[in-house]
Write a structure and sequence with these properties.
Length: about 290
């Protein structure tokens, strides 16, 4: 589910801001952007986020600044290696010139801020800013989730209406098959004014066979059961995304079985309508925790 949250905190010697952005994803995927000084907190930040969120790609940007005077230290091994490589280049290729201190100063990592590490106040400030950002994100996602819940309920109602259409059409199949079979046999055998009497028992057996092959009553019972469970899950305060995913798979399975069993156009159209609604629900469920 998409969302955004921001939190911040300040102390006597620091300021920190945390930005969280989430987009749809089937699983939880956390991406952190931290300064090198905050890398020891990476695992702690990920655990805090995973304890509050269960799905979505989460982009986390933590901006940390010290507000007290900063002392710089030389990265001596890096500078020494760089200077040595430049001198070897001069000797090997006969290049004339002197080293420019401005070039060395711009060398990434040559100058490093002296750090005494993160104190307890700084860590508490980072945690507080993270909690504030997560709280704002969840409030935004909750608003979006309520609208999403209402839309999914409407689609479940649409599927239930299509189930009723299938049940009504299936209730008259026996007589429909009997009439269709009698008409077809009559067309085949009553040519050139030849009249053939039909065996009622044999006709009943054929009709029963066709009706049994195309009986979708069990599929409709399971569809209604899955729809009831889907509604219940939508109203649950707990995490239901994976449960809804499973129920949609089952709804799609029953619709496919109905399509394969029935030869009635009305039933096939209704089953295709169910599949279309399930597909739309599947896209929406990816946003649900």
């Amino acid at each position: 589910m998409t969302g955004y949250g921001r939190g911040s905190a300040t102390g006597d010697d620091f300021s920190v801001s945390v930005d969280l952005k989430t987009v749809n994803n089937r699983f939880l995927d956390v991406h952190l952007r931290l300064g090198g000084e905050l890398s020891p907190l990476e695992g702690q930040i990920k655990r805090r986020i995973s304890s509050r969120l269960s799905r979505g790609r989460v982009d986390v940007t933590v901006t940390f600044e010290r507000t007290s005077e900063v002392a710089y230290e030389l990265n001596r091994p890096l500078i020494s290696g760089y200077v040595k490589a430049l001198k070897e280049m001069q000797q090997e290729f006969g290049i004339v010139g002197d080293l420019d201190i401005n070039v060395l100063a711009r060398l990434p990592g040559a100058l490093q801020t002296g750090r005494d590490g993160l104190n307890e106040g700084m860590i508490a400030g980072i945690e507080g800013a993270l909690e504030e950002a997560i709280g704002e994100l969840q409030r935004m996602r909750a608003q979006e989730g309520e609208m999403l819940r209402q839309e999914m309920r409407e689609r479940v109602d649409n599927i239930e209406a299509l189930v009723s259409v299938i049940e009504a059409a299936a209730s008259g199949l026996v007589e429909t098959y009997r009439a269709r079979l009698e008409k077809r046999i009559g067309e085949l055998f009553n040519r050139e004014t030849q009249i053939v009497e039909l065996d009622p028992l044999r006709m009943a057996q054929e009709v029963a066979y066709l009706a049994d092959r195309s009986d979708v009553s069990e599929e409709m019972v399971r569809l209604r059961s899955h729809l009831a469970q889907f509604r219940e899950a939508l109203g649950s305060p707990s995490e239901t995304g994976k449960m809804l995913d499973f129920l949609l798979q089952e709804l799609n399975r029953e619709a496919n079985t109905t399509l394969s069993k029935s030869i009635e156009l009305l039933i096939k159209e209704a089953a295709l309508g169910i599949k279309a609604e399930v597909e739309k629900l599947r896209e929406q469920v990816q946003n649900v925790e």
